[in-house]
Design goal:
The complex is a heterodimer of chains A (112) and B (116). In chain A, 37% of the residues are buried. Chain A has no helices and eleven strands. Chain A has strands at residues 4-6, 11-14, 19-25, 30-38, 45-51, 54-58, 61-66, 71-76, 85-93, 101-102, 106-111. Chain A is globular and about 45 Å long. Chain B is mainly beta and 116 residues long. Chain B is built from no helices and eleven strands. The relative contact order of chain B is 0.32. Classes of the chains: A mainly beta (112), B mainly beta (116). The interface between A and B is medium-sized, with 27 and 30 residues.
Chain lengths: 112, 116
C-alpha cells in the first residue's frame, strides 16, 4: 500500500465550477502538507503549504487538512481553463530531512 | 532570485552510456533534493544534501547513480551504464533548510532522460 493515495482522474469540469481534489495518507508522522501544480513537461509549482491541521485560503484556492482522518483536500473556486494541469499532493514529516512523499497526481481539465 | 535551474532540459542517450545532470539551486538555499518522476506518477525521492553533505539516499538510488554537491552550491547527478528503465524526468528542488516555512521545496523544470 502506498503511503499517499490520490485519485489520478482524469477530472473534467466546465469553466467556473468548483473543483475538489483530495488525498489520503497512512503515515501519522506527516506534519507538512503541500499541493503542487504541474503543467505538462514542467516542474511542480507550489500552490499551497500547510503545517498540521486546519484550513488555508489563498485567492481561489483553499487547502484543508484533517489529521485525525489522514485526509487532505484542495478546493479551486471559479475554475479557469488555465487551471488545467496535474495537481500533486505532497507531505513530509519532522524527520527524514523533510523529503516529500507525493501522491500520483490528479489530471484536471477545465473546459471553456 | 532566478529559481532552480536544471541542465540539460532533455537528454537522449543510448543504453550503456553515462549521463550527468546539473542543478543550480536558489541562492542561499542550504538543502538540495533530487527526485525522479515517471509518466503518470508523482515524483519519488532519490537523495538530498544539506550544504555539501549528502545526508540521505533512497533505495531507488542504485550503485549506478551518484550525486555530488561540491562546495554546497550546484549539484550533479550521474547515472552510469544507463538502462531503459532509467528513462524518466529527473527533478531537482531546493529549500532554505529545516522547520516550518523553511522546508518549502521549490522545483526546477527537470531534465527529461530518454534511454534508447
Amino acid at each position: 500500500q502506498k503511503e499517499v493515495e490520490q485519485d489520478p482522474g482524469p477530472l473534467s469540469v466546465p469553466e467556473g465550477a468548483i473543483v475538489s481534489l483530495n488525498c489520503t495518507y497512512s503515515n501519522s508522522a506527516f506534519q507538512y502538507f503541500m499541493w503542487y501544480r504541474q503543467y505538462s513537461r514542467k516542474g511542480p509549482e507550489l500552490l499551497m503549504y500547510t503545517y498540521s491541521s486546519g484550513n488555508k485560503e489563498d485567492g481561489r484556492f483553499t487547502a484543508q487538512v484533517d489529521k485525525s482522518s489522514k485526509y487532505i483536500s484542495l478546493f479551486i473556486r471559479d475554475s479557469q481553463p488555465s487551471d488545467s494541469a496535474t495537481y500533486l499532493c505532497a507531505m513530509s514529516g519532522e524527520t527524514s530531512g523533510s523529503r516529500l512523499t507525493f501522491g500520483e497526481g490528479t489530471q484536471l481539465t477545465v473546459n471553456p | 532570485d532566478t529559481g532552480v535551474s536544471q541542465d540539460p532540459r532533455h537528454k537522449i542517450t543510448k543504453r550503456g552510456q553515462n549521463v550527468t545532470f546539473r542543478c543550480d539551486p536558489i541562492s542561499e538555499h542550504n538543502r538540495l533534493y533530487w527526485y525522479r518522476q515517471t509518466l503518470g506518477q508523482g515524483p519519488e525521492f532519490l537523495t538530498y544534501f544539506q550544504n555539501e553533505a549528502q545526508l540521505e539516499k533512497s533505495r531507488l538510488l542504485s550503485d549506478r547513480f551518484s550525486a555530488e554537491r561540491p562546495k554546497g552550491s550546484f549539484s550533479t547527478l550521474e547515472i552510469q551504464r544507463t538502462e531503459q528503465g532509467d528513462s524518466a524526468m529527473y527533478l531537482c528542488a531546493s529549500s532554505l533548510g529545516w522547520g516550518d516555512g523553511k522546508n518549502i521545496q521549490y522545483f526546477g523544470a527537470g531534465t527529461r532522460l530518454s534511454v534508447l
